[in-house]
Design a protein that fits this description.
Layout: E1 23-25, E2 35-37, H1 45-51, H2 58-68, H3 82-91, E3 97-103, E4 109-115, E5 121-128, E6 132-136, E7 140-142, H4 151-155, E8 157-160, H5 163-177, E9 181-187, H6 197-209, E10 218-222, H7 226-233, E11 240-244, H8 250-256, H9 265-279, E12 284-289, H10 297-310, E13 313-318, H11 332-344, E14 349-351, H12 383-386
Parallel strand pairs: 6-9, 9-10, 10-11, 11-12, 12-13, 13-14
Antiparallel strand pairs: 1-2, 3-4, 4-5, 5-6, 7-8
Protein backbone atom coordinates (compact mmCIF):
# COMPACT_ATOMS: atom_id res chain seq x y z
CA UNK A 1 0.00 0.00 0.00
CA UNK A 2 1.20 3.49 -0.78
CA UNK A 3 2.29 6.00 1.81
CA UNK A 4 0.38 9.28 1.69
CA UNK A 5 0.80 12.39 3.74
CA UNK A 6 -1.73 15.13 4.38
CA UNK A 7 -5.04 15.37 6.23
CA UNK A 8 -6.15 12.49 8.39
CA UNK A 9 -8.13 10.01 6.30
CA UNK A 10 -11.88 9.97 6.47
CA UNK A 11 -13.45 6.79 7.69
CA UNK A 12 -16.86 5.50 8.61
CA UNK A 13 -18.07 5.78 12.18
CA UNK A 14 -18.18 2.51 14.15
CA UNK A 15 -21.22 0.41 13.35
CA UNK A 16 -21.58 -1.15 16.77
CA UNK A 17 -19.87 -1.62 20.10
CA UNK A 18 -20.37 -5.21 21.27
CA UNK A 19 -17.33 -7.50 20.97
CA UNK A 20 -19.16 -10.74 20.16
CA UNK A 21 -19.51 -12.24 16.70
CA UNK A 22 -22.25 -14.72 15.96
CA UNK A 23 -21.75 -16.96 12.91
CA UNK A 24 -24.88 -18.58 11.52
CA UNK A 25 -25.66 -21.03 8.76
CA UNK A 26 -25.34 -19.71 5.22
CA UNK A 27 -28.61 -18.39 3.82
CA UNK A 28 -28.11 -19.61 0.25
CA UNK A 29 -26.79 -22.66 -1.51
CA UNK A 30 -23.07 -23.25 -1.79
CA UNK A 31 -20.85 -25.60 0.15
CA UNK A 32 -17.88 -23.23 0.00
CA UNK A 33 -19.34 -21.05 2.73
CA UNK A 34 -20.85 -23.10 5.57
CA UNK A 35 -21.04 -20.11 7.92
CA UNK A 36 -21.29 -16.34 7.68
CA UNK A 37 -21.54 -13.49 10.12
CA UNK A 38 -25.05 -12.47 11.10
CA UNK A 39 -24.76 -8.76 10.50
CA UNK A 40 -27.63 -6.50 11.60
CA UNK A 41 -28.16 -5.83 7.87
CA UNK A 42 -28.38 -9.52 6.91
CA UNK A 43 -31.91 -10.49 8.12
CA UNK A 44 -34.89 -9.42 6.05
CA UNK A 45 -38.05 -7.99 7.63
CA UNK A 46 -39.62 -11.43 8.07
CA UNK A 47 -36.58 -12.68 9.97
CA UNK A 48 -36.53 -9.58 12.18
CA UNK A 49 -40.22 -10.16 12.92
CA UNK A 50 -39.31 -13.63 14.18
CA UNK A 51 -36.47 -12.25 16.29
CA UNK A 52 -38.79 -9.80 18.08
CA UNK A 53 -42.04 -11.78 17.99
CA UNK A 54 -42.80 -10.81 21.60
CA UNK A 55 -42.63 -7.08 20.81
CA UNK A 56 -45.28 -4.66 19.52
CA UNK A 57 -45.53 -4.50 15.72
CA UNK A 58 -44.18 -0.95 15.57
CA UNK A 59 -40.80 -2.11 16.91
CA UNK A 60 -40.04 -3.67 13.52
CA UNK A 61 -40.59 -0.31 11.80
CA UNK A 62 -38.31 1.36 14.34
CA UNK A 63 -35.55 -1.17 13.69
CA UNK A 64 -35.93 -0.98 9.91
CA UNK A 65 -35.91 2.83 9.95
CA UNK A 66 -32.79 2.78 12.11
CA UNK A 67 -30.98 0.37 9.79
CA UNK A 68 -31.83 2.00 6.48
CA UNK A 69 -32.57 5.64 7.23
CA UNK A 70 -30.23 6.31 10.16
CA UNK A 71 -27.54 3.79 9.13
CA UNK A 72 -27.55 2.53 12.71
CA UNK A 73 -27.67 -1.02 14.14
CA UNK A 74 -30.40 -1.89 16.69
CA UNK A 75 -27.93 -1.84 19.59
CA UNK A 76 -27.52 1.92 19.11
CA UNK A 77 -31.22 2.84 18.72
CA UNK A 78 -32.24 4.79 21.80
CA UNK A 79 -35.95 4.36 21.02
CA UNK A 80 -35.70 0.61 21.64
CA UNK A 81 -35.90 -0.82 25.17
CA UNK A 82 -32.52 -1.55 26.67
CA UNK A 83 -33.35 -5.23 27.12
CA UNK A 84 -34.29 -5.57 23.44
CA UNK A 85 -31.11 -3.84 22.32
CA UNK A 86 -29.07 -6.23 24.48
CA UNK A 87 -30.92 -9.27 23.15
CA UNK A 88 -30.40 -8.29 19.52
CA UNK A 89 -26.78 -7.44 20.25
CA UNK A 90 -26.16 -11.01 21.37
CA UNK A 91 -27.03 -12.39 17.93
CA UNK A 92 -26.48 -9.51 15.49
CA UNK A 93 -23.10 -7.83 15.23
CA UNK A 94 -21.49 -5.62 12.55
CA UNK A 95 -19.33 -7.78 10.31
CA UNK A 96 -16.77 -5.29 9.00
CA UNK A 97 -13.74 -4.45 11.09
CA UNK A 98 -12.03 -1.36 9.71
CA UNK A 99 -8.35 -2.27 9.46
CA UNK A 100 -6.83 0.50 7.32
CA UNK A 101 -7.85 3.67 5.50
CA UNK A 102 -6.10 5.44 2.63
CA UNK A 103 -6.76 8.77 0.93
CA UNK A 104 -5.74 9.59 -2.62
CA UNK A 105 -3.38 12.52 -3.03
CA UNK A 106 -6.22 14.75 -4.28
CA UNK A 107 -8.47 13.76 -1.35
CA UNK A 108 -11.32 12.69 -3.63
CA UNK A 109 -10.94 8.92 -3.25
CA UNK A 110 -10.90 6.86 -0.05
CA UNK A 111 -10.11 3.16 0.19
CA UNK A 112 -11.03 1.05 3.21
CA UNK A 113 -9.57 -2.33 4.06
CA UNK A 114 -11.96 -4.45 6.12
CA UNK A 115 -11.26 -7.62 8.09
CA UNK A 116 -14.20 -10.01 8.30
CA UNK A 117 -14.94 -12.25 11.31
CA UNK A 118 -13.25 -15.27 9.73
CA UNK A 119 -10.12 -13.27 8.89
CA UNK A 120 -10.94 -12.72 5.22
CA UNK A 121 -10.29 -9.22 3.92
CA UNK A 122 -12.06 -7.04 1.37
CA UNK A 123 -11.73 -3.47 0.14
CA UNK A 124 -14.28 -0.73 -0.56
CA UNK A 125 -13.68 2.49 -2.47
CA UNK A 126 -15.55 5.77 -1.94
CA UNK A 127 -15.25 8.44 -4.65
CA UNK A 128 -16.26 12.03 -3.97
CA UNK A 129 -17.61 14.44 -6.54
CA UNK A 130 -18.76 18.04 -6.09
CA UNK A 131 -22.02 17.37 -4.27
CA UNK A 132 -22.35 13.59 -4.31
CA UNK A 133 -20.38 10.39 -3.82
CA UNK A 134 -20.17 6.93 -5.38
CA UNK A 135 -19.19 3.74 -3.57
CA UNK A 136 -17.56 0.74 -5.23
CA UNK A 137 -18.45 -2.35 -3.17
CA UNK A 138 -17.05 -5.87 -3.07
CA UNK A 139 -19.27 -8.94 -3.36
CA UNK A 140 -16.68 -11.63 -2.62
CA UNK A 141 -13.47 -12.04 -0.69
CA UNK A 142 -11.09 -12.70 -3.56
CA UNK A 143 -12.23 -13.89 -6.97
CA UNK A 144 -12.24 -17.23 -8.80
CA UNK A 145 -12.37 -15.83 -12.34
CA UNK A 146 -8.58 -15.82 -12.77
CA UNK A 147 -8.15 -12.73 -14.95
CA UNK A 148 -4.39 -12.25 -14.83
CA UNK A 149 -4.35 -8.46 -15.22
CA UNK A 150 -6.65 -7.97 -12.20
CA UNK A 151 -5.09 -7.88 -8.72
CA UNK A 152 -8.16 -9.52 -7.18
CA UNK A 153 -8.00 -12.34 -9.70
CA UNK A 154 -4.33 -12.84 -8.91
CA UNK A 155 -5.14 -13.19 -5.19
CA UNK A 156 -7.50 -16.16 -5.60
CA UNK A 157 -10.94 -16.88 -4.17
CA UNK A 158 -11.92 -17.18 -0.50
CA UNK A 159 -15.70 -16.92 -0.18
CA UNK A 160 -18.91 -15.07 -0.96
CA UNK A 161 -19.94 -12.11 1.16
CA UNK A 162 -23.25 -12.16 3.00
CA UNK A 163 -26.02 -9.64 2.31
CA UNK A 164 -25.06 -7.87 5.52
CA UNK A 165 -21.38 -7.69 4.60
CA UNK A 166 -22.32 -6.12 1.27
CA UNK A 167 -24.82 -3.65 2.74
CA UNK A 168 -22.50 -2.59 5.57
CA UNK A 169 -20.17 -1.23 2.89
CA UNK A 170 -23.00 1.01 1.69
CA UNK A 171 -23.75 2.07 5.27
CA UNK A 172 -20.12 2.98 5.88
CA UNK A 173 -20.00 4.95 2.64
CA UNK A 174 -23.15 6.93 3.45
CA UNK A 175 -21.75 7.87 6.83
CA UNK A 176 -18.41 8.96 5.39
CA UNK A 177 -19.93 10.77 2.40
CA UNK A 178 -21.99 13.19 4.51
CA UNK A 179 -22.84 15.97 3.91
CA UNK A 180 -22.61 14.78 0.32
CA UNK A 181 -25.33 12.45 -0.92
CA UNK A 182 -24.32 8.87 -1.70
CA UNK A 183 -25.91 8.81 -5.15
CA UNK A 184 -24.45 5.71 -6.81
CA UNK A 185 -23.45 2.17 -5.87
CA UNK A 186 -21.32 0.11 -8.26
CA UNK A 187 -20.59 -3.59 -7.79
CA UNK A 188 -17.11 -3.28 -9.27
CA UNK A 189 -15.02 -4.12 -6.23
CA UNK A 190 -13.53 -7.48 -5.32
CA UNK A 191 -15.19 -10.59 -6.69
CA UNK A 192 -17.60 -11.59 -9.44
CA UNK A 193 -21.08 -10.38 -8.36
CA UNK A 194 -22.95 -12.95 -10.46
CA UNK A 195 -21.02 -15.76 -8.73
CA UNK A 196 -22.80 -14.60 -5.55
CA UNK A 197 -26.09 -14.18 -7.36
CA UNK A 198 -28.77 -14.63 -4.68
CA UNK A 199 -27.09 -12.29 -2.21
CA UNK A 200 -26.43 -9.77 -4.99
CA UNK A 201 -30.12 -9.64 -5.91
CA UNK A 202 -31.25 -9.32 -2.30
CA UNK A 203 -28.71 -6.53 -1.75
CA UNK A 204 -29.91 -4.67 -4.85
CA UNK A 205 -33.53 -4.84 -3.69
CA UNK A 206 -32.58 -3.50 -0.24
CA UNK A 207 -30.49 -0.68 -1.70
CA UNK A 208 -33.38 0.38 -3.92
CA UNK A 209 -36.33 -0.10 -1.59
CA UNK A 210 -34.78 0.64 1.79
CA UNK A 211 -31.74 2.88 1.25
CA UNK A 212 -33.73 4.74 -1.40
CA UNK A 213 -31.03 4.77 -4.09
CA UNK A 214 -32.63 4.47 -7.52
CA UNK A 215 -32.02 1.38 -9.65
CA UNK A 216 -30.64 3.51 -12.48
CA UNK A 217 -27.91 4.68 -10.08
CA UNK A 218 -26.73 1.11 -9.49
CA UNK A 219 -24.34 -0.83 -11.72
CA UNK A 220 -23.32 -4.49 -11.64
CA UNK A 221 -20.10 -5.53 -13.38
CA UNK A 222 -19.53 -9.08 -14.61
CA UNK A 223 -16.84 -10.92 -16.55
CA UNK A 224 -19.68 -12.60 -18.41
CA UNK A 225 -21.46 -15.47 -16.65
CA UNK A 226 -24.10 -16.04 -19.32
CA UNK A 227 -26.68 -18.05 -17.30
CA UNK A 228 -26.71 -15.38 -14.59
CA UNK A 229 -26.86 -12.59 -17.17
CA UNK A 230 -29.96 -14.20 -18.63
CA UNK A 231 -31.53 -14.52 -15.16
CA UNK A 232 -30.64 -10.91 -14.40
CA UNK A 233 -32.45 -9.75 -17.52
CA UNK A 234 -35.66 -11.27 -16.12
CA UNK A 235 -35.39 -9.72 -12.63
CA UNK A 236 -37.37 -6.62 -13.59
CA UNK A 237 -34.67 -4.26 -12.34
CA UNK A 238 -33.47 -1.10 -14.10
CA UNK A 239 -29.93 -1.64 -12.85
CA UNK A 240 -26.97 -0.87 -15.13
CA UNK A 241 -25.00 -3.85 -16.42
CA UNK A 242 -21.30 -3.64 -17.32
CA UNK A 243 -19.62 -6.53 -19.14
CA UNK A 244 -15.85 -6.80 -18.74
CA UNK A 245 -15.08 -7.80 -22.33
CA UNK A 246 -11.41 -6.85 -22.94
CA UNK A 247 -11.17 -8.86 -26.19
CA UNK A 248 -13.61 -9.37 -29.06
CA UNK A 249 -12.45 -12.73 -30.38
CA UNK A 250 -12.72 -15.93 -28.39
CA UNK A 251 -9.08 -16.98 -28.58
CA UNK A 252 -7.71 -13.76 -27.09
CA UNK A 253 -10.57 -13.34 -24.64
CA UNK A 254 -10.12 -16.86 -23.27
CA UNK A 255 -6.46 -16.05 -22.68
CA UNK A 256 -7.31 -12.82 -20.84
CA UNK A 257 -10.60 -13.93 -19.21
CA UNK A 258 -10.49 -17.75 -18.75
CA UNK A 259 -14.22 -18.07 -18.03
CA UNK A 260 -14.78 -17.18 -21.71
CA UNK A 261 -14.10 -20.84 -22.55
CA UNK A 262 -17.56 -21.61 -21.13
CA UNK A 263 -19.18 -18.27 -21.97
CA UNK A 264 -18.11 -17.41 -25.55
CA UNK A 265 -18.64 -14.05 -27.17
CA UNK A 266 -21.66 -15.04 -29.29
CA UNK A 267 -23.47 -16.10 -26.11
CA UNK A 268 -22.45 -12.87 -24.39
CA UNK A 269 -23.83 -10.81 -27.25
CA UNK A 270 -27.14 -12.68 -27.05
CA UNK A 271 -27.31 -12.03 -23.31
CA UNK A 272 -26.62 -8.32 -23.86
CA UNK A 273 -29.36 -8.20 -26.49
CA UNK A 274 -31.83 -9.83 -24.09
CA UNK A 275 -30.90 -7.45 -21.30
CA UNK A 276 -31.58 -4.45 -23.51
CA UNK A 277 -34.85 -5.98 -24.73
CA UNK A 278 -36.10 -6.68 -21.20
CA UNK A 279 -34.92 -3.51 -19.46
CA UNK A 280 -34.54 -0.91 -22.20
CA UNK A 281 -31.00 -0.29 -20.94
CA UNK A 282 -27.91 -0.83 -23.04
CA UNK A 283 -25.00 -2.81 -21.63
CA UNK A 284 -21.61 -1.16 -21.19
CA UNK A 285 -18.67 -3.12 -22.59
CA UNK A 286 -15.61 -2.55 -20.39
CA UNK A 287 -12.26 -2.76 -22.17
CA UNK A 288 -8.95 -2.47 -20.29
CA UNK A 289 -6.41 -1.03 -22.74
CA UNK A 290 -3.35 -3.34 -22.72
CA UNK A 291 -0.32 -2.23 -24.70
CA UNK A 292 0.18 -4.36 -27.81
CA UNK A 293 -2.46 -6.88 -26.75
CA UNK A 294 -5.92 -5.45 -27.44
CA UNK A 295 -5.26 -1.91 -28.67
CA UNK A 296 -4.51 -2.54 -32.37
CA UNK A 297 -6.69 -1.40 -35.30
CA UNK A 298 -7.80 -5.00 -35.77
CA UNK A 299 -8.97 -5.07 -32.15
CA UNK A 300 -10.97 -1.88 -32.69
CA UNK A 301 -12.63 -3.43 -35.75
CA UNK A 302 -13.57 -6.60 -33.84
CA UNK A 303 -14.82 -4.62 -30.85
CA UNK A 304 -16.91 -2.33 -33.03
CA UNK A 305 -18.57 -5.34 -34.65
CA UNK A 306 -19.46 -6.85 -31.26
CA UNK A 307 -20.68 -3.51 -29.85
CA UNK A 308 -22.96 -2.94 -32.84
CA UNK A 309 -24.43 -6.43 -32.54
CA UNK A 310 -24.99 -6.00 -28.80
CA UNK A 311 -26.19 -2.40 -29.27
CA UNK A 312 -23.83 -1.60 -26.42
CA UNK A 313 -21.77 1.33 -25.19
CA UNK A 314 -17.99 0.89 -24.97
CA UNK A 315 -16.05 2.14 -21.97
CA UNK A 316 -12.28 2.10 -22.45
CA UNK A 317 -10.23 1.77 -19.26
CA UNK A 318 -6.54 2.70 -19.15
CA UNK A 319 -4.90 -0.41 -17.68
CA UNK A 320 -3.93 0.09 -14.07
CA UNK A 321 -0.66 -1.44 -12.85
CA UNK A 322 -0.77 -4.59 -10.73
CA UNK A 323 2.28 -6.40 -9.33
CA UNK A 324 1.46 -9.79 -10.86
CA UNK A 325 0.92 -8.65 -14.46
CA UNK A 326 4.00 -7.73 -16.55
CA UNK A 327 2.17 -5.97 -19.41
CA UNK A 328 1.74 -2.21 -19.29
CA UNK A 329 -1.19 -0.06 -20.26
CA UNK A 330 -1.69 1.53 -23.65
CA UNK A 331 -0.16 5.02 -24.03
CA UNK A 332 -2.73 7.79 -23.90
CA UNK A 333 -2.16 8.88 -27.50
CA UNK A 334 -3.03 5.41 -28.76
CA UNK A 335 -6.09 5.25 -26.48
CA UNK A 336 -7.31 8.44 -28.14
CA UNK A 337 -6.72 6.91 -31.59
CA UNK A 338 -8.57 3.76 -30.53
CA UNK A 339 -11.64 5.61 -29.23
CA UNK A 340 -11.77 7.74 -32.37
CA UNK A 341 -11.55 4.59 -34.49
CA UNK A 342 -14.55 3.14 -32.63
CA UNK A 343 -16.56 6.33 -33.06
CA UNK A 344 -15.78 6.41 -36.76
CA UNK A 345 -17.19 2.89 -36.95
CA UNK A 346 -20.47 4.07 -35.44
CA UNK A 347 -19.88 2.98 -31.84
CA UNK A 348 -20.67 5.12 -28.80
CA UNK A 349 -17.38 5.01 -26.87
CA UNK A 350 -15.84 6.86 -23.93
CA UNK A 351 -12.64 6.66 -21.89
CA UNK A 352 -12.97 6.17 -18.15
CA UNK A 353 -11.23 8.71 -15.93
CA UNK A 354 -9.45 6.53 -13.38
CA UNK A 355 -9.69 7.49 -9.73
CA UNK A 356 -7.43 6.44 -6.86
CA UNK A 357 -4.63 4.85 -8.87
CA UNK A 358 -2.05 6.22 -6.44
CA UNK A 359 -3.56 4.19 -3.58
CA UNK A 360 -4.28 1.05 -5.64
CA UNK A 361 -7.99 1.85 -5.56
CA UNK A 362 -8.67 2.01 -9.30
CA UNK A 363 -10.23 -0.62 -11.55
CA UNK A 364 -8.49 -3.99 -11.22
CA UNK A 365 -6.23 -2.95 -8.32
CA UNK A 366 -8.19 -4.13 -5.27
CA UNK A 367 -6.43 -7.00 -3.53
CA UNK A 368 -7.02 -6.65 0.26
CA UNK A 369 -3.33 -7.03 1.14
CA UNK A 370 -1.90 -8.11 4.45
CA UNK A 371 -1.26 -4.89 6.40
CA UNK A 372 1.73 -6.20 8.31
CA UNK A 373 4.27 -3.47 7.83
CA UNK A 374 1.72 -1.38 5.96
CA UNK A 375 2.50 2.20 5.10
CA UNK A 376 -1.16 3.19 5.10
CA UNK A 377 -1.83 6.65 6.45
CA UNK A 378 -3.77 5.34 9.40
CA UNK A 379 -4.82 2.03 10.85
CA UNK A 380 -8.18 2.49 12.54
CA UNK A 381 -9.35 0.15 15.27
CA UNK A 382 -12.78 -1.30 14.78
CA UNK A 383 -15.53 -0.83 17.31
CA UNK A 384 -15.00 -4.44 18.37
CA UNK A 385 -11.36 -3.84 19.26
CA UNK A 386 -11.87 -0.35 20.63
CA UNK A 387 -14.39 -1.44 23.24
CA UNK A 388 -12.48 -4.37 24.61
Amino acid sequence: MTDRTGPAPQGPAPLGSEPKRAPVESQSAGSEQPQETQSPWTPDRARYRELIDDQPAYRLDQIWHGLYQQDTPPTELSNLPKALRARLGNSLQPALELTATQNSSDGRTIKWLWTLPDGSRVETVLMHYKDRSTVCVSSQAGCAMGCGFCATGQSGYERNLSVGEILEQVVAARRAAAPRRLSNVVFMGMGEPFANYDRLIESLHRIIADFGIGARNLTVSTVGLVPQMLRFAEEGLQVGLALSLHAANDDLRTELVPINARNPIDDLVAACQLYRERTGRRVSLEWAMIDGVNDRPSDAAELAAVARRARAHVNLIPLNPTPGWPTVGTPRARIDEFVNDLRNRGVNATVRANRGTDIDAACGQLAAPDTAGSTATEVTLSARSHHR
